[in-house]
Design brief:
The protein has 14 helices and two strands. It is mostly helical. A two-stranded antiparallel ribbon has the order 1-2. Strand 1 and strand 2 form a beta hairpin. Helix 3 packs antiparallel against helix 4 and helix 5 packs parallel to helix 7.
């Protein structure tokens, strides 16, 4: 296993506790440990030999763990870059920098395109040389896409007019960082999710100007009720078996909420961009609804197969990856039409 890892990994760093060199005996630590145990057995030092053997076994297990988690730092780096990139990409829908400028190509867009391509192809080449799992190729695509889209729009937004309050933007950015940190803590202390739902569902609408709240009283009430319902789930036990009725009910709720929200979005798009944009966006929403129904059907089939101890069908795995690959494209199209 060590030879295979060393042959397939660039700049491989061996486990020092076993592969390090013992200058006294002029041999690797693992060989020196075996030699020491052999001498103890020959000297009939049974207790000392047992202790030395136990220590070598412990070191060997640590070395095995080192090999198994050798690429953990790389995976953590990719996941961190993807997570922060997703947050940056999502912030574009909050700050919407393109709303303040005339649509145009971002300054340095060619450089952003080139860097994203170089980083993606470079990592793919590295993974090919190291015979990395196929999932690594997908993992690195996410941060490249998120940061590519963010930098393109952010660079255009640098030409914003002076009327934009930079201090307000800085405060918003600090709040976003604080929320992200709370989300990280919430993976350990799940009640933080419940607090967050109460804040955005009940406390946030209260801070609106009275006229705005009065005009949107029904959406505000519905939003608050949905957030309160969502706040219940983090307080429940996490040790649950999959419940097909619950999963399908969740899918139906997504469809209902989507239809409810689409009615406002389509009216707003028609009033600002015309009927043609409304029809195109309606088509996109319909495709999204069809995908949700299809995913519900696949999930239903997968749950039944797993509960009957038959494993996850290959067809379901393939369809799942296909749907996952189509989602970014639909998001991009939706963002351009809204």
């Amino acid at each position: 296993m060590v030879k295979l890892k060393k042959a397939r990994t660039l700049f491989y760093k061996p486990f020092a506790a076993l592969e390090g060199f013992d200058t006294i005996n002029n041999e690797p630590y693992r060989i020196a440990s075996f030699t020491a145990i052999k001498h103890l057995i020959e000297a009939k030092e049974w207790h000392a030999s047992r202790m030395a053997s136990a220590e070598l076994i412990k070191t060997g297990l640590s070395g095995l763990h080192y090999l198994q988690t050798y690429e953990r730092l790389l995976i953590r780096g990719i996941v961190t870059a993807a997570y922060i990139g997703w947050a940056a990409y999502a912030s574009l829908y909050i700050f919407r920098p393109l709303d303040f400028v005339v649509p145009q190509e971002a300054p340095g867009a060619k450089f952003v395109h080139a860097m994203a391509a170089v980083i993606l192809v470079g990592f793919w080449a590295l993974f090919t040389l190291q015979h990395a799992p196929s999932t690594f190729y997908v993992y690195i695509a996410f941060p490249c896409y998120f940061w590519h889209e963010f930098l393109l729009q952010a660079m255009v937004g640098l030409r914003m007019p002076p009327r934009l309050n930079l201090w307000k933007m800085l405060l918003s950015a600090m709040m976003i960082v604080a929320v992200l940190q709370a989300m990280v803590l919430a993976y350990t202390y799940r009640f933080i999710w419940s607090i967050g739902f109460v804040i955005i569902g009940v406390m946030w609408p209260i801070t609106w100007p009275w006229q705005k709240l009065k005009q949107n009283i029904i959406p505000a009430i519905v939003w608050g009720l949905l957030c309160l319902v969502a706040a219940v789930f983090p307080l429940l036990s996490v040790e649950k078996q999959e419940s097909l009725p619950t999963i399908l009910s969740g899918g139906c709720m997504i469809l209902i909420c989507g239809a409810f929200a689409a009615s406002w979005v389509l009216e707003d798009v028609e009033s600002h961009k015309g009927k043609a944009s409304r029809q195109m966006l309606t088509t996109v929403f319909t495709i999204q609804a069809i995908l949700i129904v299809a995913i519900m059907a696949i999930t239903s089939s997968s749950v039944r197969s797993l509960q009957s101890k038959q494993g996850l069908p290959v067809v379901n795995q393939v369809l799942g990856w296909i749907f996952l690959g189509n989602v970014p494209g639909i998001l991009v199209i939706s963002a351009k039409l809204i």
